[in-house]
Amino acid sequence: MQEPLIQHACDWLEGQQQAMVDCLAALVNIDSNSYDKAGNDKVADLISQWLEQDGITVIRHPRPDSGDILEAQLGETGQGHVLLMGHRDTVFPTGTVASRGYTQQDEVGFGPGVADMKSGLVMNCFVLRALSRLPNCPLPVRALFTADEEIGSPDGRAFIEAAAQGARAVLNVEPGRVSGNVVTGRKGGAGFLINVTGKAAHSGVSHADGASAIETLARKIIKLHALTDYAAGITTNVGTVTGGVSRNTVAPFASAQLDTRFVTTAQRDQLYKAIEAIIAEPDIPGTQATIEQTSEFYPLEERMSSELFALYQSQAKNIGFAVDGEFTGGCSDAGWTASLGIPTLCGLGPVGAKMHTDEEYCLLNTLVPRTQALTATLLSLKDWA
């Protein structure tokens, strides 16, 4: 038997399936690429409208270049709140909706961002709406709807870290895994831009006078890739390479983009030092290499999610479904809050798959039960110190 407040909220959510699907269709049918401020702000407009209709406090933080930061609040705003998180941006270019908007086949929804993570946004809205219908919400709740997670949260990170201060727990509604599991651990990751300068020379007439930036870069790539350690969960990958002016010119410049992944912050620190040392090595006389960090996510270490997951798992069982925890190599905003020492659980959204592709889908029959389980977990956190 559920506690009365949990039962009250879950009973209301039980009848919201079609309403949730309708909201999902509305959000998916708005282009909201990370660099599309207007589109992201249109998504924020709809979310604000839904929440304010139920008397939920919504604060909008205007941003000059990226989508506005949307913050919702229930109850007091002091210490010990629960923070819900979700991002409005998608990876799909503006104009995608015109050719491939929301569609549905039985209990499966399709469309750009349907799983990652507009279904999660709908879920957070309905968690808040369910809580607003209780006789009293027993603990403070805040929700952030950011707009740049897909590009590393360069603007959203500061708002996330500020909103997490004093939180007893963070619940992030990235899509549930195709297995039905939630995410209890995530790799951290970072992107780097490597630039190498050299000296041009005619490759036939005066080859020895040149200093090949491409050769230096090639040597560094071999060393960078050697840092990969599958057993430890560390990977390095140079994914793009450009350089040179012509086939018969010793290359005066070259550049590459490096992706790194790691499981712990300790690994991160060691990896960064190793990368810096490789870039600093001379390799070819007359060449020089520099490196610039272009993006970063911190890892969600599994020790930060274990107790919170146990609570969620028990509440899911009460709702009527079994769930396990899962580790993934993908990054998310959950790493920012976990790195602050706050219990954090991710992948709590509806179940979906094939994210970032034209075949992305969401299992619509997971909308209500996953929202009920999240609401029940949140309400159970009132007993956490």
Structural summary, described in words:
There is one protein chain. This protein has 385 residues and is an alpha+beta fold. The chain folds into two domains: 271 residues, Zn peptidases (Aminopeptidase, 3-Layer(aba) Sandwich); 110 residues, Alpha-Beta Plaits. It is built from eleven helices and 18 strands. A six-stranded mixed beta sheet has the order 1-2-6-3-7-16, with helices on both faces. A four-stranded antiparallel beta sheet has the order 4-5-18-17, covered by helices on one side. Strands 11-13-9-14 form a four-stranded antiparallel beta sheet, covered by helices on one side. A hairpin with a 7-residue loop joins β1 and β2. The longest helix is centred in the first third of the chain and has 19 residues. It is elongated and about 85 Å long.
Under the CATH scheme, which architecture of the largest domain would be assigned? 3-Layer(aba) Sandwich
Q: Characterize the biggest β-sheet.
A: 6 strands, mixed
| Order of helix and strand elements from N to C terminus | HHHEEEHEEHEHEEEEHEEEHEHEHEEEH
Q: DSSP helix count? A: 11
What would you call the structural class? Answer: alpha+beta
Helix content: 25-40%
Distance linking N and C termini: 24 Å
- Give the strand content: 15-25%
The 3D shape can be described as elongated
What gyration radius follows from the Cα positions, in whole Å? 23 Å
Number of strands: 18
**Tally of discrete structural domains:** 2
Low-confidence stretches: none
Spatial strand order of the main sheet: 1-2-6-3-7-16
CATH homologous superfamily of the largest domain - what is it?
Answer: Zn peptidases
- Mean pLDDT across the residues is 96
Q: What is the CATH fold-level name of the largest domain? A: Aminopeptidase
